[in-house]
UniProtKB/TrEMBL annotation:
<protein>
    <submittedName>
        <fullName>Ribosomal subunit interface protein</fullName>
    </submittedName>
</protein>
<dbReference type="Pfam" id="PF02482">
    <property type="entry name" value="Ribosomal_S30AE"/>
</dbReference>
<dbReference type="InterPro" id="IPR036567">
    <property type="entry name" value="RHF-like"/>
</dbReference>
<dbReference type="InterPro" id="IPR003489">
    <property type="entry name" value="RHF/RaiA"/>
</dbReference>
Length: 123
């Protein structure tokens, strides 16, 4: 389970937006191991100024993902708030899967080194 803290700046945080953020961020729970029960996502949504593209509203979404030894930040600006939230979720997903594959690779390399050392002692 991921603990999510949500903050809104220059806009109101409706229950629909809050539920949407929780639904999207819960999909990242597959990256949390059993020992990391302290996973925290600090999520902020913001309506930026109206000077972009002839007065069109721009929305910014930012997420800081904290887990033991893992700190990842993602940010996106879009004309639609839900699109910005989706872009942040995709970026976090990409970063976490990259980190997970690096950890697995390091584990396999360590296992190969130990195997080589043990084979050398058997001769």
């Amino acid at each position: 389970m991921i603990n999510i803290q949500t903050k809104a700046t220059n806009t109101t945080l409706t229950p629909a937006i809050s539920n949407y953020i929780e639904k999207k961020m819960d999909s990242l729970s597959k990256f949390i191991t059993a020992g990391d029960a302290s996973a925290l996502i600090m999520f902020e949504v913001e309506k930026t100024t109206n000077h972009h593209q002839a007065g069109e509203n721009m929305f910014r979404a930012e997420a800081n993902f904290h887990m033991s030894k893992v700190h990842i930040r993602a940010e996106a600006s879009k004309s639609d708030l839900y699109a910005a939230i989706d872009a942040v979720k995709d970026e976090l997903n990409r970063e976490l899967s990259s980190k997970k594959s690096k950890d697995i690779t390091l584990l396999k390399k360590g296992g190969q080194i130990i195997k080589r050392i043990l084979k050398g002692y058997n001769k």
